[in-house]
Input
Amino acid sequence: MIILIIVGVIVLVLLMFLGGTYNSLVRNRVKAEESWSGITVQLKRRLDLIPNLVKTVKAYAKHESETLEKVVAQRAAGIQGGQTSPADAAKTENMLSGALKSIFAVAESYPDLKANQNFLELQAELTDTEDKIQAARRFYNSAVTKLNTKIESFPSNFVASMFKFKKREFFDVDESEKATAEKPVSVDL
Output
């Protein structure tokens, strides 16, 4: 009778461990999915701002059509890309960021455009959106770190492999973007 109680307690402890670990893995997976949706919301917001920005710049910089066409093409790629993975989304977004930098470089040549209220508002909204994308990226990468650590850590790795939990990709900035981000920026006021 004692042996049956001991075996029962051991089975109960194992089931509790299995259930707790499984639930923890599910919570971490859901958090990673939720944080990825935060990134996609901000990326969509940025894509929605671009047509207004292009329209405003076009009115001032009629002969800069090549730059504007690149921005429009990158936006279209962002919309059509579907971003099935963080790596795909990061590649598309890095190309779009480069295109947006070129549009702001064009604006430097047009003092009237730089002073245009609509352009300034769009520029401020894009800057705000970029900040939100960075915050969402940090939140997502943090959630992915927790999930991936749980998947790889002993003893939860046994439960993760039993239930086929998969590691997630990080949403990383490419090396040229990191270099740009690390340079100090001067602002003319």
